[in-house]
Write a structure and sequence with these properties.
Oligomer: single chain
Number of helices: 4
Shape: globular
CATH architecture: 2-Layer Sandwich
Structural class: alpha+beta
Strand order of the largest sheet: 3-2-1-4-5-6
Order of helices and strands: HHEEEHHEEE
Radius of gyration: 16 Å
Helix content: 25-40%
CATH topology: YdfO-like fold
Number of strands: 6
Distance between the termini: 29 Å
CATH superfamily: YdfO-like
Strand content: 15-25%
Length: about 140
């Protein structure tokens, strides 16, 4: 395992330990930012996630949302915002969020950890940008003495 993968894995483990069920994304984002991740680029429907880190790029390949040849859904900003709010309320799994985002016509999204923004893109250049709040994170309770 490379240092970049090890560092990314540890940051994700910390985030999982400290993030609340509702509104947890900013905690994941802050954990990744503190670990030197500058950007995270998702390609849908393939569910490929590229992490750009100060220790080198890392790609994670998830289970694709579709197989074969399919039409790309039209970009629907209202449906995207509904998917975001559902996820932010803790009412969907990450897999359900990705599926809803794809159905809303998102083919790519990019998290900029320095700017604290996520940019969602459709295949015809459509974009929706959403900022997320800054949070402070510490060690998980299980690691405190």
């Amino acid at each position: 395992m490379s240092r970049a993968i090890d560092n990314l894995t540890k940051a994700m483990e910390l985030a999982a330990a400290v993030r609340p069920k509702v509104g947890g994304f900013p905690y994941l984002a802050e954990s990744l930012r503190r670990a030197g991740v500058t950007r995270n680029v998702w390609a849908l429907p393939g569910c490929q996630s590229l992490f750009l880190t100060d220790q080198g790029p890392v790609v994670m390949q998830g289970a694709p949302l579709v197989s074969g040849t399919v039409d790309v859904p039209a970009f629907d900003q209202e449906a995207l915002i509904r998917a975001l709010r559902t996820d932010q309320a803790g009412e969907s799994t990450f897999a359900e969020f990705l599926e809803a985002t794809w159905r809303a016509g998102v083919v790519r999204y990019e998290v900029d950890f320095a700017a604290r923004t996520v940019t969602y893109q459709g295949c015809n250049g459509e974009e929706y940008v959403e900022a997320y709040r800054a949070v402070e994170i510490g060690e998980p309770a299980s690691q405190r003495t």
